[in-house]
Amino acid sequence: MPSKTLSDLNACSRDDFVAALGNVFEYAPWIAELAALARPFDGVRKLFDAMKDVVDQTTPEQKLALIRAHPDLANKTQRAAGLTAESSAEQMSAGLDRLSDAEFDAFERANSAYRTRFGFPYIVCARRHTKDSILRDFERRLTNDAAIEIQNSIGEIFRIAALRVEELVMSDDRLGVHGRLSACARYPQR
Question: Pick the catalytic residue: 70, 129, 131, 141?
Fold first, then answer.
């Protein structure tokens, strides 16, 4: 999707705002729609904070629905059915489109174990990882309880969204995030 200037986003209709930012949060254009009500934004950080505030103010059920809207990582069926362009690019950045059969099996086992334990998909900002670091993170997070994993998932969703906003919105200020661990880790988890 082409970039938009912050001033254009401040001035456009709510429908155009949602069209531009509706995929920042996976299958959740309602977040952009509600964030649009807080316009005008004097910077991209204020825009992103408004989007995070929408998520923070949702019910626990809405948070779970947001988490459940995300695809499993390296899932052949979902890839064939069609991931969003954003998810596809993010998974490709971690090499998840080039897995050996053994690696696909490892991801399938990890996805299944995680879903069985928590009832929702494992979410990670794939652009911050390699396939090996993702598998290690699966193992580490499987030891958590569900409340911690809901928090972890929302934090990862925010990291994914920050990278998407950084790509989509041109502004004098920046979020200062990048698609690798060293730079993206600077963005604090809420």
Answer: 70
